[in-house]
TrEMBL record:
Signal peptide: none
InterPro entries linked: CO_DH_flav_C, CO_DH_flav_C_dom_sf, Diverse_Substr_Oxidored, FAD-bd_PCMH, FAD-bd_PCMH-like_sf, FAD-bd_PCMH_sub1, FAD-bd_PCMH_sub2, Mopterin_DH_FAD-bd
Full protein name: Xanthine dehydrogenase family protein subunit M
Pfam family, one: FAD_binding_5
Protein origin, superkingdom: Bacteria
Keywords: FAD, Flavoprotein, Oxidoreductase
FAD-binding PCMH-type domain ranges (all copies): 1-168
Amino acid sequence: MYAFTLERPATVADAVKLAGAGGKPLAGGQTLLASMKLRLSAPEQLVDLGGIAELAGIKKDGNTLVVGAMSRHLDVANNADVKAAYPALANLASRIGDRQVRAMGTIGGSVANNDPAACYPSAVLGSGATIVTSKREIAADDFFQGLFTTALEEGELITAIRFPIPKKAVYEKLRQKASHFPLVGVFLAQYDSGVRVAVTGAGNGVFRHKGLENALSKSFTPESAAAVKIDASELNSDLHASAAYRANLISVLTQRAVQALA
């Protein structure tokens, strides 16, 4: 690592000032610290968000779950309100990475980083959640903008994420065994307004699949999902899987998700 200073603000306002002046926000550090150790990132100042009480906590508010940005993956997985109201979200959190990652990683850090194979972005987009920041509220459909890119502005921090509770939901993934990231993950949520399907691990970032959404909103069956052609032309192809294989996985995992909910 290169030399850096560490700041530990106690309030969001102080953290925003430091981030706006060039400080690099540090949430769980599961990506940032690893990149610093490899000298791929060299921030001169880290702004540790771990001591800010207003960023922690999970609560059920009517038909919405509000998850504080500094909630650890284990917090979400074990929270009684999440397990009762949104078990698919608790299940997703319980299967992120390994136990060490789940003990340190945070939902806010994962969503802000927007790794193209991260699990949480699929839940946020698949739920039509709202990302609450230090400046505004951003709909999930407007937040994720591609490879490690989001709508966050310089110095803007995620403070919480609001999840509308669906009628039912499920997350299916095929894990890449070396990294524990999903080779492909599919988050499916059913609301009164229709079905949302978000895919991670397959493309340049998390995305919704409108063909699957339309088909399943009309007929919520595995056969309906199987009839949708998955275009592989814009999907990832690497040493782990071809684009065609990932396209097939999207179809298979969606069928499994529908069958699980049926």
